[in-house]
Fold this sequence. Notes:
Elements: H1 3-26, H2 31-45, H3 49-62, H4 64-67, H5 76-95, H6 106-121, H7 126-150, H8 154-181, H9 200-208, H10 211-220, H11 223-243, H12 246-261, H13 267-285, H14 301-319, H15 330-337, H16 353-387, H17 394-413, H18 422-437, H19 444-452
Helix pairs in contact: 1-2, 3-5, 3-7, 3-8, 5-7, 6-7, 6-16, 7-18, 8-9, 8-11, 9-11, 9-12, 9-17, 10-11, 10-12, 10-17, 11-13, 12-13, 12-17, 14-15, 14-16, 16-17, 16-18
Amino acid sequence: MDRALKALLTLVAALGAGVSGWAMIALHPAVPVALMAAAAVGLFLVSSPLAMLVGFMGVLFVRPAEFVPALEPLMLGKLTMLGAVAYFGITKLIRREMSLTSSGLNPFMLWLAVAAAISGVLGTNPAMSTARFTEVFVKILALYLLIVNLANTPKRAVTFQVCLMALVVFIAGYTIYMKYTSDALVEGSRAAGIGMLGDPNDTALTILMATPFAVAAALDARGLARAGFMAAAFILLAGIISTQSRGGILGLGAGLFFVLRGRIRSRAVRFVLVGTTLLGLLVAAGIGKRQGLDNGGKLDESAEGRLIAWKAGMGMFRAHPLLGVGYETFGDNFPMYAEALPFDKHSMTAHNSFVLCIAETGLFGTIPFLVLFAGAGLIGLRLAKSAEHTPPSVERAMLQSYVGCLAAVTVSAFFLSQTWMWFIHILFAQAAGLGRAYEIPFSATGWLRAWLTRRPLALAP
Length: 461
């Protein structure tokens, strides 16, 4: 190493030690630890654009300002988003690689963004819709752009998947902590995350993003890695149990079915294994106490409210079939379209990601939304097919489990309003990046032609 560089590093180390010693004496013994942790995080973030992307996602998932309100003025979400995009752009400029990763899903993601923006401007509350679009959907677009372009090689895709799992494990771990230490439980027994994940069902959907992968990796990994993935899978499953989410349990069943699909040929055996597992989880979660029917044979508040919300959403679509009532305005319009206002609630969400999309953006937004799901699913099936020829490894677990993660979230999203949250769109971006990494293209016209002519699409890459 160059002597000048050694001298500089020695000087920096000496200054750091001096500042830490002063902080320990004058401020608090824990301050040096915090300073070193902050320095380590900073060094990690600037190590590569992919690391900066993980940092951006960490802020979105962990929500540090929810735990430490003093951080709220820093607007860490916007700060890390701008930092990740800027770092990515600067890296492209330095390397003179200005092209972006192409994918058949990209035009539909752009179409969905345009539909959300136009429906908001022409909807029932343009000011609020525009503000929400700028605050939320811009982050979704930034995430999609970064994931597609930074997780587009096999090695990067595996790294991204493991980092995503680690963030979800944190959420699951916090949910378990809340279950056994907090009195602020939903319905007296259901745990949840914090902030936007304060609803147990939303928390369960987020945990499902990585649970099938963790289970598959626990089966495919070796040595200490297997132990780590087994621990992660246990925490994720325990997190879902802590939420007592019926939609989460159903989604988990769908995800596990696809994980077993490449390992057990018999459908009957797969159904028995998944059914037995879900039954055990239902008993462990105590969901039997949350009945869908009461003693009088009537739907409980949760089920009845969903039906009312779904009917109201379809009423909005019938009244505004092309562009809907406007981006993020379902709650404002709900009283006008609800057959009854349930349980003294004057505003409700759709409790269904697909109903929410068609109610707020009409056909113009729902078409690309559905194509994104279909395209991601087809890519996932082809990835799982290619995994059959890959030796057991974390990479094979990723290839095999992606479609399981998508299926789990899709089933859960049928009972939740997650259309405009970034969790679903992270999976879309993963599909686009994985399609590029493993040379699995998606063509909407080819898919439509095969569907119209009833010719099956080849799943082998």
